[in-house]
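Team,

Forwarding the record for the chain on the shared tracking sheet. I've put the sequence and predicted structure together so nobody has to dig through attachments.
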Amino acid sequence: MLVFASICPHPPIIIPSVGGKELNKTRKTVGAMKKLAEYFCSAKPNTVIIISPHGPMQYDQMSITVSKELRGDFSQFGDFKTTLSFKNNLEVVSAIKEAALKNGIPVGSVDIPQLDHGSLVPLYYLTQDYHSAKVIPIAFSPLSLQTHFNFGQAIGEAIGKSDGKIAVVASGDLSHRVTPDAPVGYSPRGKEFDEKLIDLLKKNDSEKILNMDPSLIEEAGECGLRSIIILLGALSGLKYNFEILSYEAPFGVGYLVAKANLS
């Protein structure tokens, strides 16, 4: 049963021990993540499926981590103390793979216990006061947007057959080109992409998201669209609406925090 679904950004700078004085520049995002964590704790999921753009991507298939024990830290960002560790839910992993392969979606297993920052940053906030959830890391691929939506539907099918309470988190930043000080260069289409995506999420218009202009997507320099589309696929058989908790781009990268309210 799906009990929680969200879109989360993953800038390491929102981790207090990493961001330091810069944390104040992301206060809207930090506040929204704390609010999201309250919803997460209330839902009490026993498993979190987290989709990260920075996981062990394979070019011809989706990737699901099958390592029994998962761990990660922020040492590459200067924090040598904070560590996170989780158990995997291999029963749900098997159910997702079975549903995907049955529907002709290529998916493979990877045995890499190290969690990337795309998974760690959302999990840092969501699990601070709730430590009972197992974690299933998923990495997307360069395959078509429609294939990612179909993969999400397979995930939703597996969730629907599970007796457990499951959360799905789409980790991803939006455009990396929103302002002139953006890390990969500025494009006026960066803001256009972010505004259009957020508007379509509010309207629950998955079809238009799947058919967004490829040149707009390319020009935006995003990293989270495929994570979001997998989430939309998982939600496609349910009644829901997105609640936008925050959006800001303090460093030229769009940070969106959104919660799917499930009916």
